[in-house]
Amino acid sequence: MKSVRKLRVHWPIASETFSRLATGDAEAFKNEAGIAALLQALSESPDLGDFGNYRHVFESGLGFEGFTCTDGANPTLGHVGQRTISPTLVLTTYFDAALDDVAVERFLQHIVNIHPWEVPVIELTGPISVSSTALPAVFESEVAS
Questions:
Q1: What's the CATH number where 98 sits?
Q2: pTM of the model
Q3: On the CB side of 77, how many CA atoms lie within 13 Å of its CA?
């Protein structure tokens, strides 16, 4: 098992992009500027999505975000006092749990800076374990030593 932290970013997408992705059209990732910016941020941080021989690993899911803006909000979508539903891509990636706080803050701040929402939904977990197929070989070599 590998100790990692999970980073999930909720990102608004156009209805057309949502529909294309829902039908399995992966090319839609390339046509949505926001998703392209998010994937670029992922690729610029070598610590995000590092799984040995695989880099920039992520999963994504489709859903909806719902919210009502209150007085003082400056919404990108919707209006104060109005319930708004937004098609959303949820991108999940992982990074080593031992990564120092400065590096974590740096890529979190970068995502906040490029996110279109006034208050983006970004989830960050504490350490969790994920399986790694590379570990049995490492474990066997350590036992043999």
A1: 3.30.70.120
A2: 0.85
A3: 18
Residues 6+ apart with CB under 8 A from 145: none
Nearest to 124 by CA among 16, 26, 4: 4
Rounded alpha-carbon distances, angstroms, from residue 48 to 24, 39, 68, 108: 25, 11, 32, 11
Domain enclosing residue 18, as ranges: 2-144
Q: What is the domain count for the chain? A: 1
Nearest to 80 by CA among 92, 68, 62: 68
Q: Is the pLDDT of residue 51 over 60?
A: yes
CB 9 within 8 A of CB 111: yes
Quick one: tokens of 119?
């208050």
The Cα 63–Cα 109 span in angstroms is 24
Rounded to 5 degrees, φ, ψ at 53 are -75, -5
Q: Are 48 and 96 in contact (CB under 8 A)?
A: no
Q: Specify the pairing of strand 128-130 against strand 59-68.
A: unpaired
Q: For the segment 65-82, what is each residue's pLDDT rounded down to a tens digit?
A: 999 999 999 999 999 999
* % helix, strand, coil for the chain, step of 5: 35, 30, 35
